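_Full entry_
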Amino acid sequence: MKRVLITGADSYIGVSFERYAARHFAAQLSTDTVDMRDDSWRRKDFSLYDIVYHVAGIAHADTGRTDEAAKKKYYAINTDLAIETCQKAKNEGVRQFIFMSSAIIYGDCAPYGKRKRITRSTLPQPSGFYGDSKWQADQGVRESGSSSFTVTVVRPPMIYGKGSKGNYPVLAGLARKLPVFPDVDNERSVLYIENLCEFLSQVMIRGRGGVFWPQNREYVSTGDMVKIIAKASGHKIAVSQSWNWAAALAARVPGKVSVLASKAFGSFSYDHEMSCYDFDYQTVTFEESVRRTEGSFVR
């Protein structure tokens, strides 16, 4: 059995992984968690663990409302803390360090009407300090890798599931209330939390290192997401291209409105080839994942 230390108490991903591993891989993985909010983690004996899974960090900010002091905090936690934790793990004999990077290191999604497909050869170009703080950590932890210390970097797209935060619950709220919604032909890579947890379990059990881009098996459009969420929630909504003019108009309004329109209706996807490995982790389809997220399913 491999012993896993999750750095970052009460995180959505960390807690979800703990529950998933206990339910599906109890004979192969045991988990423990350490809080990173104060300095007590520095006294934690990492040598007791085979794997350190680092999920501690600050989530994406509204960069237009963040002052310089807050920006420095993002680098201190998202970059410096990650690299220090990785080095401590290496110094204390941990065999594998897993870092949660992000698709944000490739910049923002393409604007309305454009496509953005990431391939293995695409160079990271973070567009803001949040993305840059993740990219600096991404590079920094990989520099510590060696033949005896495996570093695994995971660059997921939008993660969603029951209890998740971020863009999905905002979209789900609209899908449950609005009578109509545009049917824009955009393309997004997303990752259901259970598919992520299965992926993590597999790379831990196999001790795999390198950079990984897990995603769901299917690309989705925002319109399709809204239709499936509404259906799972028992809400009737008309998703039609006849309303695309509203999305197109919003995309042309200067300032925050166009930014939000691009977030909602822009495209951002990983090439499927990047996300195929010699183990299966895409065990839940998108439609089933929405039913589990919107319904009473308990992991």
Summary: The two ends are 22 Å apart (CA to CA).
